[in-house]
Amino acid sequence: MIVGAGFEYMLTQNFILGIEYNHIDLGRANYTAYNTGADTSLTSVDDKTKLDTIVGRLSYKFDSFGAVASR
């Protein structure tokens, strides 16, 4: 599951400043493994992977002709 939001603001006609936040939840999993070697036992791992990311960006819009509006 991914949930996020972002915002962009046009600083000038060609420069755009943006920021984005995403929360990523990859769910839950349980793994069991048999250890080999001197310690022969079972190991259980409970995995709950979640990520929170924030991305900032500065974009440049290449627009040599300007905005074209039709009427």
How does the SSE layout of this entry go?
Layout: E1 2-10, E2 15-34, E3 42-60
Describe it for me?
This protein has strands spanning 2-10, 15-34, 42-60. Helices cover 0% and strands 68% of the residues. The chain has a three-stranded antiparallel sheet, with no helix packed on it. The mean pLDDT is 86. The protein has one domain (2-60). With 71 residues, the protein is mostly beta strands.
- Count of strand segments: 3
Integer average pLDDT? 86
Uncertain runs: none
Helix and strand sequence: EEE
Q: Provide the number of structural domains.
A: 1
With strands numbered from the N-terminus, the spatial order across the biggest sheet is 1-2-3
Helical coverage, percent range:
under 10%
Strand content: over 45%
What count of helical segments does DSSP give? 0
Largest sheet: 3 strands, antiparallel
* Classification by helices and strands: mainly beta
User: How far apart are the termini?
Assistant: 43 Å
The general outline is rod-shaped
Oligomeric composition of the shown chains: single chain
Compute the CA-based radius of gyration: 24 Å
